[in-house]
């Protein structure tokens, strides 16, 4: 155990800090759940990419910088510590990206990854269907290979697809063997969202914005080179993606540590009111202990990965942990804000309350998306503790 | 930057675990619980033969000079087996205090040598603990009189036993009169020694609590996999699974907190108090939940003396408020984070 950063790591931190100080947008960007905000974010991500700070852990040839995971954590600390914008292309960069690196052909990597890193291509994730939520193996959307073997014909419907209203591409699972059931006979495809036969219907989320959408496929032609992994092996590939989603990459600790810091500031500024309920102080302390524990766990995991370990079912403990932590911190902020907590961004007296309200609303979804926490508990019990099905 | 243990450290842990698996098997634990003294000279002898009493004694005094980081692993094993011996108090907490005395202090070298060979039992009476664990069988007691540290022979104190729910934890009220003959440090030195001793005691309790949590989880997993109701193992029922998944999650996120605290202590970091308190809170909560859910999934069986779980639950309940209760530790964390200019947020997890 050696908890000192190396000179190289320190230099990297300095570089990122300096770059952010010089380049952070002066005004907060509009919400990426609006067309305008989405494009503003695209522009910001392009800027990050030009500085080779978009996907720091990817190899340089793919538009990254070849950083190790400690450096990635450092990047995230500087990024969120500076209050930089949330990343808009997470589905692509954090889920499909690593999947392609592991399962994609060389041609697919060259074609998709650099454009993903620069956010020229924004990606949506197409797994859920109206009758395949937690039970994802119940997928019925079909992708049937044409007689000449050049393309799939896709029919069916996906739902809850984050930011699909504005995205350029979708990756998803489709039933390519019509006689198959459950997790057999599925293929993993990349589908351009402007292809003929694709219809997108935005769904308003709790915050009134177009946070996700349903997508209808009507005889959509998808070239066979857009299949990631082997025919019928989609489930296997998707499980790897799910591992990335729940595990380390999707939710770096820095984002939550930033929230904890803000919460401590909020508490200190409102202490007179907050201390009327002693449990609030407890919850503020827990915001720090909880986020520190999460950060420590990430550093511990990264160290183990560097020594050749692989993340197993314990990734599911991560998912439960960050989603509950985030929810708890936002609930606490709402309690501190009291009668101002309900104010939206338009309210003249909202000051920072509206930001907490936005975060509070989004935190409600944490225990649901990326596999509900109930499903994660099942996974922990069965695969980590070995309990019977 | 590498926040993991070396292979040597992990191998050592394995070896300790294998040793305790037989030496402190549940049957042995029960036997020792039933004795009057609650201590087994034979067990202590075997522990000493393994060199475990010598672990944190400096190398020039016949020990291995092991640091707090290695003890973070060791104490987990002591907890996992609910070792019915005050090994950690003597070989880690007391040894640390005595080692920190200036070389040449009367008896320092002699005590360290005796700790290393396992021929002395030392009880630590830190002011944060109103009762002293293992005061009766101890040969020597380290006691506080304000900031002053006294090393008092057992004959010079009066001891009144206060039985604990955990029969292998022997607590006592100690009455004694400070004398210059027993004084080993005072003033600023004494204050610093007690502060460091407190952190070691807390870390030791935290590590044991985490080990206990893991043991209770393992016992519960074994039980629910074999106990059948409605024609299936109860471990296949979701409510049961979710109880145990929550325990596993708590344990998973308490571990690195313990390790970070140990490192802070070993390196004398400015923020060590808060780190150590955080560890105690996290490990205590994990153990508390492992006990509650453990007994629940055992059903009525869990409410009996017969089932092994009870010994580990009791140790966990007992340790949770020793070396400072949750309020004490929350206050120490609050002192670090709710003050002006506190360094928190992204990038503050490690000291630069
Ligand atoms: C903000 C947000 C963004 C999302 N983005 C995407 C996206 O980009 N792409 C995508 O494909 N999907 C996305 N989803 C969908 C998400 O993956 C699903 O909502 C999730 O998998 C749960 O499915 P469901 O909503 O159908 O709930 P259901 O499966 O109907 O579950 C309802 C409740 O029943 C519980 N339940 C169901 N089965 C079990 C079981 N076996 N044991 C115990 N409890 C059970 C669940 O835990 C939940 O509490 C998103 C969802 C949200 C909220």
- Ranges of chain B where pLDDT stays below 50 over 5 or more residues in a row are none
Backbone structural class of chain B: alpha+beta
Helix content of chain B: 40-55%
Bound molecules: flavin-adenine dinucleotide
The CA-CA distance between the termini of chain B, in Å, is 11 Å
Distance between the termini of chain A: 38 Å
The coarse silhouette of chain B is: globular
Mean pLDDT of chain A: 95
Considering residues with a beta carbon less than 8 A from a beta carbon on another chain, report the largest interface and each chain's count. Answer: A-B, 61 and 52 residues
| Rg result of chain A | 21 Å
Q: Which percent range describes the beta-strand content of chain A?
A: 5-15%
Characterize the biggest β-sheet of chain A.
4 strands, antiparallel
Order of helices and strands of chain A: HHHHHEEEEEEEHHHHHHH
Describe it for me?
The complex is a heterodimer of chains A (389) and B (352). Chain A has 389 residues and is α+β, with helices and mostly antiparallel strands. Chain A has helices at residues 7-23, 35-50, 69-81, 90-103, 106-117, 234-246, 253-269, 271-274, 278-306, 315-337, 353-363, 373-384, and strands spanning 123-126, 142-145, 151-162, 169-175, 186-192, 198-203, 212-223. Chain A is 47% helix and 13% strand. In chain A, strands 2-3-7-6 form a 4-stranded antiparallel beta sheet, with no helix packed on it. The model of chain A has no long low-confidence stretch (mean pLDDT 95). With 352 residues, chain B is α+β, with helices and mostly antiparallel strands. The radius of gyration of chain B is 20 Å and the shape is globular. At the A-B interface, α1, α3, α7, α9 and α10 of A face α7, β9, α8, α9 and α11 of B. Flavin-adenine dinucleotide (FAD) binds at residues 91, 125-128, 133-134, 160-162, 211-212, 365, 368-369, 371-372, 374-375, 378 of chain A.
């Amino acid at each position: 155990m050696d908890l000192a950063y190396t000179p190289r790591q320190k230099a990297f931190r300095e570089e990122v800090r300096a770059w952010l100080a010089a380049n952070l947008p002066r005004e907060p960007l509009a919400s990426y759940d609006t067309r305008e905000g989405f494009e503003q974010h695209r522009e910001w991500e392009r800027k990050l990419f030009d500085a080779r700070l978009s996907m720091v852990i990817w190899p340089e040839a793919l538009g990254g910088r070849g950083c190790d995971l400690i450096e990635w954590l450092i990047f995230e600390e500087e990024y969120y510590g500076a209050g930089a914008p949330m990343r808009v292309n997470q589905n692509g960069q954090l889920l499909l990206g690593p999947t392609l690196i592991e399962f994609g052909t060389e041609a697919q990597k060259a074609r998709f990854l650099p454009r993903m890193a620069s956010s020229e291509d924004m990606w949506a994730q197409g797994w859920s269907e109206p009758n395949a939520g937690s039970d994802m193996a119940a997928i019925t959307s079909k992708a049937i290979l044409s007689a000449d073997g050049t393309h799939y014909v896709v029919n069916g419907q996906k739902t809850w697809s984050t930011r699909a209203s504005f995205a350029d591409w979708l990756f998803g699972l489709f039933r390519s063997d019509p006689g198959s059931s459950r997790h057999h006979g599925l293929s993993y495809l990349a589908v351009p969202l402007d292809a003929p036969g694709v219809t997108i219907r935005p769904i308003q989320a709790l915050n009134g914005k177009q946070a996700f959408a349903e997508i209808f496929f009507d005889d959509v032609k998808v070239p066979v080179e857009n299949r990631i992994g082997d025919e019928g092996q989609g489930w296997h590939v998707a499980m790897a993606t799910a591992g990335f989603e729940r595990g380390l990459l999707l939710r770096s600790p820095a984002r939550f540590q930033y929230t904890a810091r803000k919460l401590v500031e909020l508490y200190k500024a409102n202490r007179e009111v907050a201390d009327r309920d002693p449990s609030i102080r407890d919850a503020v302390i827990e915001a720090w202990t909880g986020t520190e524990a999460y950060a420590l766990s990430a550093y511990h995991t990264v160290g183990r990965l560097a020594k050749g370990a692989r993340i197993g079912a314990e990734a599911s403990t991560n998912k439960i942990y960050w989603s509950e932590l985030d929810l708890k911190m936002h609930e606490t902020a709402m309690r501190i804000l009291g009668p101002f907590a309900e104010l939206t961004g338009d309210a003249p007296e909202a000051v920072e309350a509206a930001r907490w309200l936005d975060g509070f609303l989004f935190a409600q979804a944490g225990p649901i998306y990326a596999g509900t926490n109930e499903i994660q508990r099942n996974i922990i019990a069965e695969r980590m503790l070995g309990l019977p099905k | 930057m590498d926040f993991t243990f070396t292979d040597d450290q992990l191998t050592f842990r394995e070896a300790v675990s294998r040793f305790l698996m037989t030496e402190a098997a549940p049957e042995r634990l029960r036997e020792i619980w039933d004795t009057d003294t609650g201590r087994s000279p034979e067990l202590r002898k075997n522990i000493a033969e393994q060199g475990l009493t010598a672990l944190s004694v400096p190398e020039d005094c016949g020990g291995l000079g092991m640091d707090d980081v290695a003890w973070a692993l060791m104490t987990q094993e002591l907890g996992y087996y609910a070792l019915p011996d005050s090994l950690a108090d003597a070989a880690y907490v007391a040894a640390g205090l005595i080692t920190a005395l200036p070389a040449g202090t009367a008896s320092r070298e002699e005590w360290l040598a005796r700790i290393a060979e396992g021929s002395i039992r030392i009880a630590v009476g830190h002011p944060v603990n109103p009762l002293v664990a293992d005061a009766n069988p101890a040969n020597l007691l380290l006691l506080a009189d304000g900031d002053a540290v006294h090393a008092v022979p057992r004959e010079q104190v009066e001891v009144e036993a206060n039985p604990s729910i955990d029969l292998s934890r022997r607590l006592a009220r100690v009455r004694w009169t400070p004398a210059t003959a027993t004084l080993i440090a005072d003033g600023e030195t004494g204050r610093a020694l007690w502060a460091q001793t407190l952190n070691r005691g807390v870390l030791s309790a935290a590590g044991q609590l985490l080990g206990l949590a893991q043991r209770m989880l393992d016992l519960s997993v074994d039980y629910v996999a074999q106990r059948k109701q409605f024609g299936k193992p109860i471990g296949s029922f979701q409510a049961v699974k979710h109880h145990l998944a929550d325990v596993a999650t708590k344990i998973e996120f308490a571990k690195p907190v313990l390790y970070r605290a140990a490192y802070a202590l070993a390196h004398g970091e400015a923020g060590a108090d808060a780190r150590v308190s955080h560890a105690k809170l996290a490990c205590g909560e994990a153990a508390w939940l492992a006990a509650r859910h453990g007994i629940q999934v055992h059903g009525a069986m869990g409410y009996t003396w017969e089932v092994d779980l009870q010994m580990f639950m009791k140790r966990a309940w007992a340790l949770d408020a020793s070396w400072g209760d949750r309020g004490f530790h929350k206050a120490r964390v609050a002192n670090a984070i709710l003050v002006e200019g506190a360094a928190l947020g992204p990038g503050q997890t490690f000291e630069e």
